[in-house]
Amino acid sequence: MTDPRPTSAFHAANADSSVTARLIAALDSQAANPGVRRLREWAHARLAASPGERALDVGCGTGSEARVLAAAVAPDGAALGVEPHPGLRAVAEQRATEAGSPVRFLAGDALALPLPDAELDVVWCERVLQHLTDPARAVTEMARVLRPGGRIALLDTDWATFVMHPAAPEVRPALATVTQATAATPDAGRRLAGWLAGAGLTVDTVGADVLLHDPRSVTWPIVQGLGSAAVARKLITEEQRDLLYADLTAAAAQGAFHLSVTMFAVVAHRPG
Ligand SMILES: C[S@@+](CC[C@H](N)C(=O)[O-])C[C@H]1O[C@@H](n2cnc3c(N)ncnc32)[C@H](O)[C@@H]1O
């Protein structure tokens, strides 16, 4: 069953082309971030998808990690990306074709994967669980499709670790509130190991890295999103928002802008 609540822009209900273009730009920018790249490499190395295996990326977005899995299981393995958002799925298909990747993509939902029990050797799920209202159920569903001995990597953000500087002390609580409201489950990062254990899986290793933005330029899409949300919820005034924007702009001119959030990765396996 599909989660009926459009919890964020990353919901299939928000498939309008301009929204989709923004999502793709955001995912591409995150994919280029050194912290995201390091954590992905760390998790792929420990997941160790191998030639001949069957791999799945749940909520694969533009398909970048599904293509990595496809390369790892080649030549005789199979990789599948499940993605409910039609615009993102179309981009994933197009990029896979352009790259000559054999990965396949399916419409589907993390809460009801279109696969039989014990079908897969490896599962990857990155920054999806934070967008679900029942992430534990999704992890149980991923455990269902994993064969005994199969491995899984979950990667997610913990929005309580979001830091933006400079921000006046009276504005910081408002920023924390609106940041946490951007995800259905904003503390997903710290809960990954618990969800895996709760689904009967054995946690093998836990890692973390930080998504750190360039100190020389304000990350306006994020900053404006938070500023507008804080004003709309009457948590700060328009004057406080404008002062925040001015402080951040001045800091960036000195290379002193700071925006960061911690991401966690957990690799586990299904007992054999
Ligand atoms: C932040 S994006 C991450 C995309 C990709 N995993 C990555 O790390 O680049 C969140 C993804 O979760 C997908 N998503 C949202 N709800 C989902 C659900 N119920 N089942 C599967 N995927 C879902 C979105 O469509 C989107 O592709």
What is the secondary structure topology, with strand pairs?
Blueprint: H1 17-32, H2 34-47, E1 54-58, H3 64-73, E2 78-82, H4 86-99, E3 104-106, E4 120-126, H5 135-145, E5 146-165, H6 172-180, H7 188-198, E6 202-212, H8 220-232, H9 238-253, E7 258-269
Parallel strand pairs: 1-2, 1-4, 2-3, 4-5
Antiparallel strand pairs: 5-7, 6-7
Index terms:
272 residues; alpha/beta; Rossmann fold; seven-stranded mixed sheet; 9 helices; disordered N terminus; binds S-adenosylmethionine
- The CATH architecture: 3-Layer(aba) Sandwich
Query: Could you name the CATH homologous superfamily?
Result: Vaccinia Virus protein VP39
Q: With helices defined by DSSP (H or I, 4 residues minimum), what is the helix count?
A: 9
Q: Please give the order of strands in the largest beta sheet.
A: 3-2-1-4-5-7-6
Overall mean pLDDT: 95
Secondary-structure element pattern, one letter each: HHEHEHEEHEHHEHHE
- Sequence stretches where pLDDT stays below 50 over 5 or more residues: 1-7
Strand content: 15-25%
* Broad shape: elongated
Bound molecules: S-adenosylmethionine
Amount of helix? 40-55%
CATH class: Alpha Beta
Give the total of beta strands.
Answer: 7
- Describe the oligomeric state of these chains in a short phrase: single chain
Biggest beta sheet attributes: 7 strands, mixed
